[in-house]
Amino acid sequence: MPQIRFLSLALGCCLLVVQASPSHAIDSHVGRLPPWQAGANNPAVDKGLEFTVKEADNLADFHGDLTNARLVLYVGGNYFFAMAPLVAAFEAKHPELKGRIYYETIPPGLLVRQMKAGGRITVGNMTWTAKPDAYFSGLMAVNRLIEAGDLLGPPTIYATNQLAIMVPKGNPAGIKGLADLARPGLTLAMPNPEFEGVARQIKASLAKAGDDDLVKAVYETKVADGTTLLTRMHHRQTPVWLMQGRAQAGVTWRSETLFEEQVGLPTERIDIPDEQNATGIYAGAVVKDAAHPAEAKLWLDFLMGDDARAVFSRYGFGQYRP
Which residue positions does the secretion signal occupy (predicted)? Predict the structure, then answer.
């Protein structure tokens, strides 16, 4: 009993720290961290003991029950918010796979590292192995893995996306376009080029808006002086940093800005003109030596159907046209 009382006191102290932290602004809107996390993102049927403590014990990028999974998907985190409705629509067509789907939504480059490590991954104090049946990323990355023999071609190309500037609600810094991002003293939250493919499209877009000078200002000068914060894991850190007041703007996928608006989070979208924008093309393929190639093919076929397109269009994704 003394141990239980001590634990309760310790948890109470932790809660007081959380409430006093900058993330309180986020909690006041949605009551959880990350702000979009909810049980609907977990396709497991039997969840057993649910132990999720925001900011302390949270596996937001790992979804489902790996125990008897018949379909393991490595999905680049660019459309993490679309995966729950996609899985639900897929399971409606294939009820034999309900509760048997496991998927990850970490950055594509990190998924490749995990794949090269035999599916082995460690988060906090937990280590497990999840070998993928299919991999999804940008078309160029998928083609490279096909050429390397890691994936089986041809690629399935199923959606497109464009960029937008995300700012806190009310746009307090008065951002109007990409050129404003070079402003001295303006703190940016930007995807890390080391493992986030979207950084390539962002640099291309910056170059269209302000030549190499704007690219260097955002990704070199401001990184050096500390006013460009590079994400450590994925660009989903951008909206959190904006809501915490750590940054005033960041470039991300337009679909993510639409999702943030739809769920009522305190962010806004600044559209980038077509002539300055860049388009991402999403593709996927079955992994070589996949344990469940037939199920992976079912998922790839599903992504090309009307049900999947309806989900993608909800968040502003386009249909691929060569």
Answer: 1-25
Q: Which residues contact 49 (CB under 8 A, 6 or more apart)?
A: none
Same-domain pairing of 16 and 120: yes
Other Cβ atoms within 10 Å of 262 Cβ, number: 11
pLDDT at 36: 61
What residue numbers bound the domain in which 31 lies?
A: 2-159+285-314
pTM of the model: 0.80
Residue 48: which pLDDT band, with cuts at 50, 70 and 90?
low
- Give phi and psi for 207, each to the nearest 5: -65, -35
* Mean pLDDT of the 52-57 span: 57
For 109, the 3-state DSSP assignment is helix
Please give the Cα distance from 234 to 231 (Å, whole number): 6
72 membership: H or E segment, kind and range: strand 71-75
> 159 with 317: CB under 8 angstroms?
yes
Domain co-membership, 237 together with 119: no
Same domain? For 146 and 237 the reply is no
pLDDT higher than threshold 60 for residue 26: no
CB 242 within 8 A of CB 221: no
Maximum Cα interatomic distance, the chain, rounded to a whole number of Å: 67
For residue 49, what are its two tokens?
């003991």
What's the number of domains the chain is made of?
Answer: 2
27 and 131 together in one domain: yes
pLDDT > 70? residue 82: yes
CA–CA separation, 257 vs 275, rounded Å?
20
Q: Could you give the C-alpha distances from 20 to 12, 13, 28, 81, 103, in angstroms and in order? A: 12, 11, 12, 28, 34
Which residue in this structure is represented by tokens 């602004």? Answer: 25
Q: Is residue 320 part of a domain?
A: no
- Rounded Cα–Cα distance for residues 142 and 320 (Å): 15
DSSP 283-319: EEEEETT-S-HHHHHHHHHHHTSHHHHHHHHHTTPBP
DSSP 40: G
